[in-house]
Amino acid sequence: MLGGTVMRTARAFGGMGRQMQVRGGAMSKLPHSHSLFPTLRHTTFAAQAQDSREPSIDEARCLPRKFRECNNDIIYTLSIQGEHGARKERLLREIMRVDECTWKEARAKLAEMDSYNDTYHSLVTLPYKLGLGVALFASISSIPLVFHRDSAVWFNNIFVHEDLPDGGLESLDTFWKVGSWTWGWMEPYLGTASFVLLGLQFSRAQMKNINYKPYTEAVLSWRANRLAAKFPQYNRVVVRDFSKSDPWQN
Fold first, then answer.
1. What is the pLDDT of residue 117?
2. pLDDT tens digit string along 128-173?
């Protein structure tokens, strides 16, 4: 009885093996997966092309070209993102709401606010202008003071008073040799300047980490508070946002 059971089990497994061989042969006749992908991609792109459409002339005519043509939701979203044009338009609509005036009348009020916002322009931007001038002068002048022989000799005679090289000025026949001679007194100047800038940058980063305002942020906050205090009838947040993004100009 046990032998009969074993024989029946063996025949069952043999039949399953033959079925798997037949199925395997049929599966081997199927195309490879990579040959199917181009067809699927082509079908997908074709479906997308059928679903897409071109804008009509009426839709093109309704496209906003200026901030004043946008609705309130778009103006509010762009204002939060820091777009000055949107903040300006939001303040215009705030003036219209409070003063109950037209858009053109609100522009006259906005011009008054803009002029007041630019007060002390020359004084506040003076550190930026000084920094710009000093940086340009130092960066441009460092090149001839290091590599140009006549400039290096003049600077040495006026400020440094360093001894000439052993071979005299005639030995400084290439700018590499000139740089090797001048590097003795130019290295402290250039190295110290680089370290000062690095220290200032690190200090500014730490100020922002503890929510201290560097010069620019402090000036912008002072300017915004000043404008909001001058025109308290309008929403303070709207006025301050406009003031912070308003460029400095007369």
1. 96
2. 999 999 999 999 999 999 999 999 999 999 999 999 888 888 899 9
C-beta separation of 141 from 177 below 8 A:
no
| CA angle (162 as vertex; 160, 167 as ends), nearest 5 | 145
In terms of phi and psi (left: phi > 0; alpha: psi -120 to 50; beta: otherwise), the region of 82 is left
Residue 218: predicted pLDDT = 94
**Summary mean pLDDT of the chain:** 84
Cα 164 → chain centroid: 49
Give the pTM: 0.71
As a whole number of angstroms, the distance between CA 153 and CA 82 comes to 52
Using CA atoms, how far apart are residues 119 and 223, in angstroms rounded to an integer? 9
The DSSP annotation for 152-179 comes to HHHHIIIII-PPPPTT-GGG--SHHHHH
Residue carrying structure tokens 């090797």 = 180
Specify whether the CB–CB gap between 185 and 162 falls below 8 A.
Answer: yes
Residue 64 contacts residue 77 (beta carbons within 8 Å): no
Question: What's the confidence (pLDDT) of residue 25?
Answer: 45
Half-sphere exposure (Cβ direction) of 151: Cα atoms closer than 13 Å? 13
Give me 166's structure tokens: 């052993």
Over the range 161-197, which residues count as b (16 or more CB within 10 Å of their CB) and which as e?
Answer: eeeeeeeeeeebeeeeebbebbeebbeeeeeeeeeee
Q: How many CB atoms lie within 10 A of CB 79?
A: 23
